[in-house]
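Why do we care about 3D structure at all? Because function follows from shape, and shape follows, mostly, from sequence. That is the central idea of this module. The next example makes it concrete: a single protein chain, its amino acid sequence, and then its structure expressed as tokens.
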Amino acid sequence: MIYNLAIYLLRAVYYFASFFNDKALMFVKGRKNEFKKLSSVISNNTHKIVWVHCASLGEFEQGRPIIESIKAQFPEFKILLTFFSPSGYEN
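And the structure:
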């Protein structure tokens, strides 16, 4: 219960900060309808999916060899890549 409350409060803080900070705005925009988008991608897909979530662009760069290895070994799989950090959306 405390965790859920903290998530809602954090979301409100980011929303308020988005009026003054470009990164916070990207954070808010990137999460708009996030669950509908993910659901749509997953339900409209006929391929097997490997979901890779990276907290930051740096984590993505570290995980890139793993993603490339998955694609090489399982070319029929689709990679669903999500980011927590707005810097991931920019690249």
